[in-house]
Design brief:
This protein is 3% helix and 36% strand. It is mainly beta and 204 residues long. The strands form four sheets. Strands 1-2-5-6 form a four-stranded antiparallel sheet, with no helix packed on it. A four-stranded antiparallel sheet has the order 7-8-9-10, with no helix packed on it.
Length: 204
C-alpha cells in the first residue's frame, strides 16, 4: 500500500548506470534491464557474458560513458539482498543507448527499452544497438544504419542467449517496448527512420 520501504539497494560498478525496465516473476524475484558503462558491473558465475564489451564515448548531463556502454540484465532475490544472476549483453559498440538523431527527441529517450518474462521465467528484452557485432543467435545478422533495434531471449538464470535478432532497415532504428500474446508470439514496438524496414526484414 506504499506505506513502508520493503527494500532498497545500489547496483553498479565504478562507472555510470541507468536502469530502463523492471519485472518480477511469480516468486517475487526482480529482473532489472539497463545500461552500464562500468567494466566491473557485478556479474554472476556462469552468466551468459561476464565481460564488458566497450563502445565509444557518450557524454551527457544525465550519464557519462567514456568507454561506451553495454546492456545489463540483473536478477535479485525477493528481499533485494542478493544478486541471483547478472550478465552483460552487447558488442563492441554502444548497446542499450538510443542516441541517434531523429529517434531521440524527449528527455530520457536514450534509455527506452523493456524486459518481460514468460511463464517459464525466460527473459525477453527489446533495446537498441550501435554495435556491428551485437550477438545474434538464430536471427537476422544484417545491420543497416548506425543504430538497429534488437530483441533477444535469455533463460531464467541468465546463462544462455536462446535467440537474438536485429530489427531494422538501412536507416536508424530503435526498439522501446515488448509484449507477448497467449500463444507466445512476441511483439515489439519502436521507432525508425528506415524507408525499407519491412522489405529489409522480408529479404532475410
Amino acid at each position: 500500500n506504499g506505506s513502508s520501504l520493503l527494500y532498497s539497494t545500489f547496483i553498479g560498478g565504478s562507472g555510470d548506470e541507468a536502469p530502463h525496465s523492471m519485472v518480477t516473476n511469480d516468486a517475487g524475484e526482480l529482473y532489472i534491464m539497463g545500461t552500464t558503462g562500468s567494466s566491473n558491473y557485478p556479474t554472476s558465475a556462469l552468466c551468459y557474458d561476464g565481460s564488458f564489451n566497450g563502445g565509444t564515448l557518450y557524454n551527457q548531463n544525465v550519464v557519462d560513458f567514456p568507454s561506451g556502454c553495454d546492456i545489463v540484465i540483473t536478477k535479485l532475490n525477493t528481499a533485494g539482498s542478493a544478486i541471483l544472476s547478472s550478465t552483460f549483453v552487447g558488442g563492441t559498440g554502444n548497446d542499450g543507448l538510443n542516441n541517434v538523431t531523429g529517434l531521440n527527441r524527449n528527455y530520457a529517450d536514450e534509455f527506452r527499452g523493456e524486459i518481460i518474462l514468460d511463464g517459464a521465467g525466460n527473459c525477453y528484452v527489446a533495446s537498441t544497438t550501435n554495435s556491428t557485432n551485437f550477438p545474434v543467435v538464430n536471427g537476422l545478422t544484417s545491420r543497416g544504419g548506425s543504430s538497429d533495434g534488437v530483441v533477444f531471449k535469455l533463460n531464467s538464470t541468465l546463462t544462455t542467449l536462446i535467440w537474438s535478432t536485429h530489427i531494422g532497415g538501412s536507416g536508424n532504428d530503435a526498439l522501446y517496448g515488448i509484449q507477448q500474446d497467449a500463444t507466445g508470439n512476441t511483439f515489439v514496438t519502436g521507432g525508425t527512420s528506415s524507408t525499407n524496414l519491412s522489405s529489409a526484414q522480408n529479404s532475410n
